[in-house]
Amino acid sequence: MVSTRWLLLTLIVFILPVCILFVRKRYSFWTRQGIPTVETRFPLGHIQHSSHLMVDLYRQLKGRHPFGGIFRFLEPVVLVTDPKMVRNVIVRDFRYFYDRGGYANPAHDLLSGSLLNGEGKQWATIRQASVGLFSTVKLKAMHPAMVQMVDRFRMALNAKLTQECEVKIDLKEWMSRLTVDIISCVLLGFEANSLNDREGGLYGRIGRQTFLVPKLWKLFLMASFRPLAKAIGLRLFSPDLCELFRRMTHDIVAYRKEHSDPQQNDLVDRLFNLTKPDEGGRRLTESEIAANVYAFLAAGYETTSTTVSYCLLELAKQPDLQERARKCAMDTCEKYGTLTYESDMPYIDQCLNETLRKYPPGINIVRVVTEDYAVSGAQVVLRKGTQVVVPVYAIHHDEEYYPEPERFDPDRFTKEACGARTPYTFLAYGEGPKMCVAHRMGRMQVRLMLAMLLCSYRFEWCPETQVEQSNAHTVIRMRDGLLVKVSQL
């Protein structure tokens, strides 16, 4: 017994100093490279997840170098603070920053194996197959179906308004239901029934399980000990959510195998065509189809519903801006007879761009150095495997580019203001080869939704709405929903 205690004490005496020296050397990494950094605390570092807003870090490091050095737990991370380096990372020198570095463990976590986490040839294959869905011809064909879905939304809301002159609704909840129905219809070819089902249809089954920040210990292992995390089967998504999409995709694919004519040529068809072996023998599995169905649905409904919700919330706070946006939409309807794909609505676009600036759907753009990279204008080489973060939210709230950044001002996005602004300081959908593949569809959808709703309803601010962001999600969400008063015009 005594010998065991002495052995443990001896191990502690020798191992503890080694660990302390390791951590100290690790946290001196950027200082030894001559890169600006800020004080680090063990074991969390500066950030634990890429959903951190980064505003304070960005402000402390900006102007001292094209980038600053921070840590995610024990891992060195590049925080880009200069727009020219933003351009280099995501556009000009893209070949050095090819991967996103997301945690993927499809053997244990089916939904993690999607386009969002795909690397190399897998990413290129899926993107090439899906990009044709968002051509001008395809988008024009989708437009009538989207109009029909928004009409259904108006019918559901009007049913509530027949009993009262005005009602309070949670904008995020209602917009999420609508966008899940739209995406399910135009991209996946089935009815999600989120608007009419009392339990929320498909949205009711997935809405509260998406974009959750994993527990801290999981994040630590996924970031600093990824092989171990994969070996023990750590997962980002719940087994129930994975099983839901596995079963749903299996049923859709099985139905289409039996009813192959005519093809719908939607996302499912395009992914299903990739199950046939290519020249190299690589083919997509049904599990990979399920992962990408989830990725397109979840990312699509979250970005669209968030943008429209926050835009309407801001317009509810400023009735004069709301009236100006409504007039823009109504003038367009009068000019064209209806809202069409080609409808020109400049002030609606300004309102949406300002919303995307203030509440960007992607808080940060994350890349990984795929080849050693010599930073232009600096005596620094970023080594392969280093994570690089472009802090979109922080850049969008930088007073140098957007004075009074917390003020909602659509006139920041007039043609003249956009022309005068520093390039690569508005990154709502990303830029470069990995720019959001569905950004044109997303843009069409939010324009249509916002314009049709403003032509039918008036939105008023609710004093009880608490504008407090949730810390439980990897995207911008309010902790207690987005309540507004709605009345018919």
From TrEMBL:
Q: What is this protein called?
A: Cytochrome P450
Does the UniProt entry include the keyword Cytoplasm?
no
- Give one Pfam hit by family name: p450
How does the record classify its membrane topology? Peripheral membrane protein
Q: Which residues bind heme?
A: 436
Cofactor(s) this protein cannot do without: heme
- Sequence similarity: Belongs to the cytochrome P450 family.
